Every structure is written in structure tokens, then in C-alpha cells.
Amino acid sequence: MKRVSKVVAYIVRDGRLVVFAHGDDETLALAGIQVPAGTVRPGELPEDAVLREAYEETELPGLRLVRYLGVGEYDARPSADAVHVRHFYELAVDADEVPERWTTYETGDGSHDPIRFDLYWMPLEQAHVLVGGQGSHLGRLFD
């Protein structure tokens, strides 16, 4: 089975976490509540990938790496014949003002239609609802 290097961003501010859902596509909406995450590009360091992915999906200014939280594996079957090797990071936002709710569109490499992200801040205490094992390292935010 293929192993794919991934990153997961916990963007934290005032006891809340940036999360999103895909509101305009029925299939993507089924994915549920997520945090910014994505694939590490060839030759890219995970710490660079997490900042890139977090910005591409949130468009938040002033994103800063706080710390590495660890690694975990996620069996992506049946949607993909792969094991995702996920690197989890805590990020902060160094901006005076951030929106409570906002929408962004990720265009990627242009090979697909833009993907809509409906983003908002969720209290950390409620973040156990994250899909697909994305919440597996939330407890480390309290270490």
C-alpha cells in the first residue's frame, strides 16, 4: 500500500480552533468538519507544507508555526489505497483582527474547479467532532 506524507494544522487562538466544512458540494459536504491539511510536495519539508496548506485553505495572514505535535498514521481505505503519514502542528495567527466566519476558495493547480471552504472558530472542547482521525492529536495542545 502506498504511503503518503501529509500535514494537519491546528490553528489555535483564544481557546478556539479553525475548522471548516465544504458547503457547496454535496459529496465534499459529506466529509464533515475538518481542519486545514494536505499533502507534502516532493522535496518540501513538513513544516513548510503545513504553513502553505494552512494559508491556501484559510487565507489567514500572519500564520506562525508554534510546535510540532507528533505523527500518526491513517488508513485511507476505501477512499484511497494509501496510508497517510500525518504530521500534526500547532499554528498561531499573528494578526490583530481575524474574522469569526469566512469563506475561501482553493484553486490548487487549476486541474479542478475551485473548492469552497466555509471556515469558523470552534471551541477546543468541541473539536472532538473532527473527521477521519484529524482530532487524534488535539490532547497534545494541552501539554
From TrEMBL:
Occurrences of domain Nudix hydrolase (ranges): 2-143
Domain of life: Bacteria
InterPro entries (alphabetical): NUDIX_hydrolase-like_dom_sf, NUDIX_hydrolase_dom
Protein name: Nudix hydrolase domain-containing protein
UniProt-listed Pfam families: NUDIX
PROSITE patterns noted in UniProt: NUDIX
